[in-house]
Amino acid sequence: MPSATALKQAREPKPLPAPNADFYQIEDTLSAEERAILTKVHDFMETRVAPIINDYWVRDAFPFELIEPLKELNIGGLNVGDYSSKLKGLVAMEMSRVDPSFTTFFGVHTGLAMGTIALLGSEEQRQKWLPPMARLEMIGCFGLTEPLVGSGTGGGLLTTAKREGDTWILNGEKKWIGNAPWCDVSIIWARDLDDNQVKGFIVENKTTPGFSVAKIENKMALKVVQNGLITMKNCRVPEANRLQNANSFRDTAHVLRETRSGVGWMSTGVQMGAYEAAVKYTQQRMQFGKPIASFQMIQDLIAKMLANVTACQALMFRLEELHGEGKLLDQHASLAKAFTTQRMRETVAWAREVHGANGIIVDNNVGRLFADAEALYSYEGTFQMQNLIVGKAATGFSAFV
Fold first, then answer.
1. Mind listing the pLDDT tens digit for each residue in 337-380?
2. Residues 6 or more apart in contact with residue 304 via CB below 8 angstroms
3. At what angle do helices 330-355 and 383-395 cross, to 10 degrees?
4. From the centroid of its chain, how far is CA 33?
5. What domains does the chain contain, in order, with CATH numbers?
6. How far is Cα 33 from Cα 138, in angstroms, rounded to an integer?
7. Where is the Acyl-CoA dehydrogenase/oxidase N-terminal domain (predicted)?
8. Tens-digit pLDDT profile for residues 147-193
9. Contact 319/261 with Cβ under 8 angstroms?
10. CA distance 352 to 349
11. Helices (H) and strands (E) in the chain, counts
12. Considering only CA atoms, which of 151, 20, 93, 103 is closest in space to residue 344?
């Protein structure tokens, strides 16, 4: 005869598994030091960002009060320091699991702005700009996209640069530039009128006459990160602020290869957040006298979401192995960006679906992630442009116009 204790335990419901999107235990591949860094980021996002981010998203505002506690994590130099590319990717993934807007702010600053200076600046420029930027005492942005030039940046920028002695005169506009309305420095890409080549400049936003920024309003995605329309009218930039190793669009492409990998990690993180929110909701939501997580059709969607997440994690993991081996090519980054953002669109749609009507409000987070996914799908190069890069590598023919 079973004991009374055994009978009682048999009658009591088993505890439900906590939502966990790391199904193949990717994080376990990190070293103890790297896991400690990732844990700090996780705790920061859960305790400081998650409780307030929906309110800021609704108000289309940035939580400036988070910059000081972010400094305490000491990760401002992560993308230019001696850390594995895998750790950098997992940090972006972990941030995006809670809020991709915050990741975009951080990635634009550390990956695009600081990364450009690290890759293409002189040693003197690196020593001058990177330490205060790593301490988050100075925030940067990256000005490539223009109002009339998006996917066609490789074919020619309308923003121009003209050298006059030891000064460059910049004229033109940049659009959709994250952090631009409030940051300190901008990496500006412009076409040199003398040789028709693309060159890069470090522009000090607040002290350069003729440099102005208007905040882009009424966005439906990534509402927390502040995007700007930059206008430059005869902006005078010293030769000392020209990126000394940025002399053509090919140099710009080196930076974009790195950041497209980052978007792959972000897209994976967004899926993780949507999946975990969906699992938690279905475990608690009651219909017909039982949790909807027990329904076959719900479990089918949960399984498909988890498959998408896990496939993207595995793809990104291998991509970072290639990165670490010095084998990362444009087509590798493009395939990752295209695949993960397409799967992300599916995953967030399924997560919204299992929430029913509750999925269209931000309170349960999936409505915000659903909207934010649309921006990730398009920025850093559209899905179609990434596929053309991959197609050229696979066939040997260029289909670009």
1. 999 999 999 999 999 999 999 999 998 899 999 999 999 999 88
2. 346, 350
3. 140
4. 23
5. 26-134 (1.10.540.10), 140-247 (2.40.110.10), 250-395 (1.20.140.10)
6. 27
7. 31-136
8. 987 665 666 789 999 999 999 999 999 999 999 999 999 999 999 99
9. yes
10. 5
11. 13, 9
12. 93
Spatial separation of the C-alpha atoms in residues 262 and 299, rounded to whole Å: 30
Q: Say if CB 90 and CB 272 are below 8 A apart.
A: no
> Which residue(s) pair with 191 in the sheet?
160, 198
Residue range 295-307, pLDDT digits in tens: 999 999 999 999 9
Sequence-distant (≥ 6) Cβ neighbours of residue 168 within 8 angstroms: 161, 162, 201, 236, 237, 238, 239, 242
The DSSP-derived string for 75-95 is: -TTTTTSS--HHHHHHHHHHH
Kindly give the residue spans of alpha helices, DSSP state H, lying in 121-248. 123-134
> Structure tokens of 166?
């030891």
Residue type, 137: E
